[in-house]
Design goal:
Chains A, B: InterPro entries: RuBisCO, RuBisCo_large_chain_AS, RuBisCO_lsu_C, RuBisCO_lsu_C_sf, RuBisCO_lsu_fd_N, RuBisCO_lsu_N_sf. The structure is a homodimer of 420-residue chains. Chain A is α/β, with parallel strands linked by helices and 420 residues long. Chain A is built from 17 helices and twelve strands. The first copy, chain A, has two domains: 127 residues, 2-Layer Sandwich (Alpha-Beta Plaits), CATH 3.30.70; 279 residues, TIM Barrel, CATH 3.20.20. In chain A, strand 10, helix 12 and strand 11 form a beta-alpha-beta unit. The interface between A and B is large, with 102 and 104 residues.
């Protein structure tokens, strides 16, 4: 049998001794049940049981973070201990299967009453997973090649309003953006395949404009069509995009599951743009769910090429520190050439380029500005230009004000979007 | 355009006025972005915008439940207001698509910084969803017919130890259970298609025993094989089960996504046993994620026939009140004949039958005891018998002690499993 193990790191909170709590986790997620059963032999425990690799005590919690925890009997005023626990699971318990891995490392254990907090913070799987799933097909280099962009981030936008544009309105917008030299456009995650404007009509309308603009400019915009849907629709929608000459598909990872993403990966001919909507539900409570570090590893294994990370000063709850850590995670190899392009998004405009570059020290990002381009006072083309100027300033080491003094689009963006 | 709407009910927590917070939610999840954009016309807002149907103020929170909330500027000591908010979304924004519906009703809004809590607590979709997804194929009646059980719950067990049994050990266990007259057996959710005992071998081994026992007893046990896996594997695994004469498949709903479940539903020839492992991560923080009421509606639409709900006095954090509500939800029709069989599980034994019947007032449950059958002092057959006796007592209105005094298997179960 394989000696390979999966390492799963948790931060736990419990009124029990950390050692006891770790034993409960390991038992629940491998050979145990609530009472000893006859067949649970020493051989089975040894061969299939989870091991406790390490326990590191952390500061205790002032109060239980999650409801339903049952402290030890007779302990009227328990200490809610916190600790980092690393468990190792035999790879042969599940094999190279993300769905079955999840049942082990992120399954019932969230519900155990011995815990008032349990969060999966890191995960290391053996290379067999990458051999099966194959990871990002295009990644950063493939995306850059298709988009024809080197030495700076891809500049992109999201079609806004998110929903409701007629095909003619959408065409006019895409035309303007494409002629303005934008690198990337994406559908909003709210816009999938709605009855009022079916995806196939949207694809035809958009690709017509993109090809026409490419004839003029020599540059073919990358457009991520939102092909999110049921399983059979993923293939149909993908084929509609590819047959129309499209060069990117977007999918809501949590809407189709990692299983849906890895299914798409088996036949996709274009990069997969991974949107993470619903992710907040899995991560915003710090005592539950999982860290982005785990999520991005699974999404990469499953085969996304781009992955949303939020951007600095976003309109969401996420801190800049967390965003920067997420970007770094996406750019950290797991088994080799398997990094993906982080997608900076939400509340982005030209002025966020300098801070982003300073904090992230990379140009390997896809920088999306929705309102920051669409609502630019000089119009959409000026919005695109301002984003490029922001990154020029960042790469040349200029301050925003300095560079804006000689670049009108950047100055207009500052006037409209800079927070006082 | 269709006048149909989707109604989504949330419990929110926010340092803003509830009305303002509801406007933010509605805007984010329909036509809005962080700044007004030129194309967001009155027509678009009216046709595609989400409406606020109702706001009901609840007791405020003492402190913010989730991190990252940004109170209004200048409000140094904000009140974290709580309220129930009902939003209505135009059906034509997404059409009958669970994946795209999720992006709207459960997407980015969890991350909005205006909120220190946001939980989806109910969801009503128009009938077009049921017309597309078709819901449970077998449901309660179809399951009862296949299992040959009327007038009482199906009595079942989970193979324990969860993992590690050799095929010969598994066969011996299944034989014993089948000859003891059990109605239902399931694989553990940890046991999918592991290299040490591939599903196809497990299916062959188990079905051999089940058919042999059926020849003797005239009763064919329903066995839920855990076919959880990647998308193409779902069909392969399903076919392996059906070709071997199997009559149920189990899938980890959150491991394959609702998209995976509804894909399986399109071709499954047997009932789908829906396991909800990982569900705790989506629900245990009361300020985040969703209520089981929403989850079970989506799982039923997607096509499960059985759905795990925990059982009374379970080993998890979930309260009995919550379990009973979940069972009732599964038994409440949405559009007609679309109820599913709730699966009572975790820490169950014969003694939980009486309380379950009293609290749930139904026999339409699948009552699973793992340790409660496997670790019964009289052996597995006595464990099964004790479960039947527990339900006899429940249905006849006897107390546990009373019925146990004349039924040895029930008495043995009490002696071992009853909590002092």
């Amino acid at each position: 049998m394989s000696e390979e193990r999966v390492l799963a790191t948790y931060v736990i909170e419990t009124p029990y001794q950390l050692e006891h709590a770790a034993v409960v986790m390991a038992g629940e997620q491998s050979t145990g049940t609530f009472v000893s059963v006859p067949g649970e032999t020493a051989f089975i425990k040894e061969t299939y049981g989870a091991n406790i690799v390490r326990i590191t005590e952390l500061e205790p919690a002032a109060a239980p973070s999650l409801p339903g925890c049952k402290p030890p009997r007779g302990d009227a005023n328990p200490v809610y201990r916190r600790g980092e626990v690393v468990l190792s699971f035999p790879y042969h318990n599940f094999g190279p299967s993300i769905p079955n891995l999840l049942a082990t490392v992120a399954g019932n254990l969230y519900e155990l009453r011995e815990f008032s907090g349990l969060r999966l913070v890191d995960l290391d799987v053996p290379v067999q997973f990458m051999e099966k799933y194959r990871g990002p097909q295009f990644g950063i280099a493939g995306t850059r090649e298709l988009a024809g962009v080197t030495g700076r981030p891809l500049i992109g936008t999201i079609v806004k309003p998110s929903i409701g544009l007629s095909l003619a309105e959408l065409q006019a917008l895409v035309r303007e953006l494409a002629l303005a030299g934008i690198d990337f456009i994406k559908d909003d995650e709210l816009n999938g395949n709605p009855p009022y404007a079916p995806l196939k009509d949207r694809v035809r309308a958009v690709m017509e404009e993109i090809e026409r603009a490419a004839d003029k400019t020599g540059k073919k915009v990358m457009y991520a069509f939102n092909i999110t849907g049921d399983i059979d629709e993923l293939r149909e929608n993908h084929d509609v995009v590819v047959e129309a000459g499209g060069n990117c598909v977007m999918v809501g990872i949590n809407s189709v599951g990692f299983a849906g993403v890895s299914h798409l990966r088996t036949f996709s001919q274009v990069p997969i743009h991974g949107h993470r909507n619903q992710w907040g539900a899995m991560t915003r409570s710090k005592a539950l769910g999982m860290e982005f570090r785990v999520y991005q590893k699974l999404a990469r294994l499953a085969g996304v090429d781009h992955l949303h990370t939020n951007g600095l000063d976003n309109k969401f709850y996420e801190s800049n520190e967390s965003v920067v850590r997420s970007v770094r995670d996406c750019l950290t190899p797991m088994f080799g050439d398997d990094t993906v392009m982080p997608v900076l998004s939400s509340g982005q405009w030209a002025g966020t380029a300098i801070d982003s570059y300073r904090a992230m020290q990379t140009v390997d990002v896809l920088h999306l500005a929705g309102g920051g381009i669409m609502a630019h006072p000089g119009g959409v083309a000026a919005g695109v230009e301002s984003m490029k100027q922001g990154w020029e300033a960042a790469l040349a080491g200029h301050s925003l004000g300095e560079y804006a003094s000689t670049h009108v689009e950047l100055r207009q963006a500052m006037e409209k979007f800079a927070r006082p």
